[in-house]
Amino acid sequence: MSSPISAESHPPARISPFVPAGILERAGIKHCIVGNAVVRLYGSDLVIADLDLAISDEQVGLALSVLHDEGFRDVDFGPGHLVFLPVLGKPGGWVACRLQFPSSPDYVVLSLASCWHQEINPDTTFLPCPDYRFPRFLAYLEALICTIDALVSVGDNPSLPRYQYAIMMVLLEKRPELKGMVSPGDQFFIDFFMKQRARSGKLRVLELRKGIMAGTISVDAARAVVPRPDSSRRRIKEKYLRQGTRGGNGEGSTPVA
Fold this sequence. Notes:
By secondary structure, the protein is of the alpha+beta class. The chain has a domain at 4-136: Nuclear Transport Factor 2, Chain: A (Roll), CATH 3.10.450. The protein has 13 helices and 7 strands. The longest helix is centred in the last third of the chain and has 20 residues, at 229-248. InterPro entries: NT_sf.
């Protein structure tokens, strides 16, 4: 699938996969592109499967109506999508629908912006080319962290935002001008969340992040009490390495007469 910029500059023979976003932008629907297309815009070589759009919660019905009027039809999610997505349709759960233009092999998925925790305003989004609205880098990173927080807190499946988050971490390393602009709470999440193995440790990181954001705990105090399973594993490894070194030097062995 082409990048949005190349699709705009060199229109393909078939319908562009970004056409639904352009239709909604021109219709004045408050939305922005999320998912694989975003990380690809920021430099990832990730293949775009479905075009994910975060729609303002109060305009989802209108967005569907606009796309239906343009000829798009509802289609089912495949088994792979259902494994990867958070639970669909449960009370308070992820809300999404999938559509396809009949002559196109491409799909578009509309989700509530609140599911992605994506703010849609001039401060958090931009148009790198006409009609295609993307989130700004740090706004998208913050939205992914908030989405992971919300899903983990209720025991739901965070695979979709966590995968996006992992790619954003790689991209952030290539954007040193942005690293210093990450908020203290989000930086705390970056430093400690992915190091946790137990759900209790993840929940503790999320709790401490909220405290940092609310100003009820300092970053230094949070770092002093956050679970550090990575440090425990390192200490165990170092212990066995020391024991192996002593054994190799003959320490503690019985001399042979």
